[in-house]
């Protein structure tokens, strides 16, 4: 079976981008017969950006309920919270000690933060925590611990998967070769060509960190209000509009069939007014989301059930995968067997 692994950072309320880019395709892929899926709530990753414990906890619950409401079957897949599996942090340290620092210097997320500092005339590393610098190593541990074959990612994450391959290969080479073993399978990035990156309300990428999101399960009235606030150009009704340049159209396309999208494109050319276009977008999204929203609200009313599911999921996963592998790895590097 091919092992596929997907995580969402517990840094805020899940939004339409998370749904279109991760949850919807991942739940669909998990139904294939030859696939073993791993879904996790990346709360250790959240600490890099969010130093607000209440927000991390609320987000963990919201993202778990989102996966479940969207059809994830916890009896068929591995479903867990990252911090419930301490073997991930232990492996992170082992990988840290084989990872080249120079490679981490070139990681996109870190480089982007340095570039922002330079643009602002600050010192390179001003305000950057070491967690941001080390993030590709934690992500490598997430992947390598479960010998995931495929990690669905956007283009900007491909580099991190290559790092996971590099660290895994170094470990295999250093500790595996003398013992005639390959401890880690090397993962591949599954680039999601057909999955759009959704724009947020302000036109930048929709992201929990930018505060520009449309929450996936916002109440109907809020959904309508947020859609009405998407930035558009000032073209009046009757004036032709450029569909490809429009945030409203991009969002519509992510929820509509090919025929509906083609029809909307014609309406843009014929000068549909922004108010009407937004109303159509609202109706399209709401018709897909409404049944899921109902399930989500039911799930959120019983947080202790979700908590139990997560704990059970992590416990089974530790026994089946994480603990046996860590035992081998501790022996490989020369640490005591804890069992
Ligand atoms: P953060 O700001 O904390 O990084 P985020 O909302 O940008 O959060 P992540 O939690 O890092 O997103 O990503 C979870 C998944 O959602 C990833 O697979 C990512 O590709 C996908 N995703 C995030 N934002 C979008 C978007 N705007 N369009 C499509 N997919 C997205």
Automatic annotation (TrEMBL):
Catalytic activity of the protein: tRNA(Trp) + L-tryptophan + ATP = L-tryptophyl-tRNA(Trp) + AMP + diphosphate + H(+)
The keyword Protein biosynthesis belongs to this UniProt entry's keyword annotation: yes
Chain location of the short sequence motif 'HIGH' region per the record: 10-18
GO molecular function, one term: tryptophan-tRNA ligase activity
Binding of L-tryptophan, residues: 142
Keywords assigned: Aminoacyl-tRNA synthetase, ATP-binding, Cytoplasm, Ligase, Nucleotide-binding, Protein biosynthesis
EC numbers: 6.1.1.2
Enzyme class, broadest EC rank: ligase
Family: Belongs to the class-I aminoacyl-tRNA synthetase family.
Subunit structure, interactors included: Homodimer.
Name the record gives this protein: Tryptophan--tRNA ligase
Organism: Luteimonas soli
Lineage: Bacteria, Pseudomonadati, Pseudomonadota, Gammaproteobacteria, Lysobacterales
Gene expressing this chain: trpS
